[in-house]
From TrEMBL:
Belongs to the NusG family. The gene is nusG. Participates in transcription elongation, termination and antitermination. PROSITE patterns: NUSG (PS01014). GO terms for biological process: DNA-templated transcription elongation; DNA-templated transcription termination; regulation of DNA-templated transcription elongation; transcription antitermination. This is Transcription termination/antitermination protein NusG. It comes from Candidatus Eubacterium avistercoris. InterPro entries: NGN, NGN-like_dom, NGN_dom_sf, NusG-like, Rib_uL2_dom2, Transcrpt_antiterm_NusG, Transcrpt_antiterm_NusG_bac_CS, Translation_prot_SH3-like_sf.
Amino acid sequence: MAEANWYVVHTYSGYENKVKANIEKTIENRHLENEILEVRVPMQDVVEMKNGAKKQVQKKMFPGYVLINMIMNEDTWYVVRNTRGVTGFVGPGSKPVPLTEAEMRPLGIEVEDRENAEVNIVVDFQEGDTIQVISGAWEGTVGVIQSMNYSKQIVTINVDMFGRETPVKIGFAEVKKL
């Protein structure tokens, strides 16, 4: 069986949720649940100031784009490409390029590590401890543990990204206690 990957689909601006709903309806109608696994419009919490009052709202992280976790084949490509509001897949020419694990991590999308799925790592740190990232995209970053998920073997720390505190999930094996 082919492996599912995350792909980025370009849409008309403002049509992201409509495209998501249309693709989900097509999945249901054509029984493609095993080939198109998930459709997402990545959102982020933003604090806006309106009339002197702070208001927390959700905004699209990437206006004009939708993320799709799917097994790429002729059927799934055709269904997504011909959905109303979709202008195409992101990639050179007409060849869709899947997102890498490093590109998905800041979006909060976790990839199963199929080889090490049953390995549990014993750690000597807890929430509130300061840690340093020792490998991966965030190598060298120092942060305070905001939360820990023992079943997924990940910690969440806040990192400064574009002048904003952003939560990042990092595997136990990629960090050490300071």
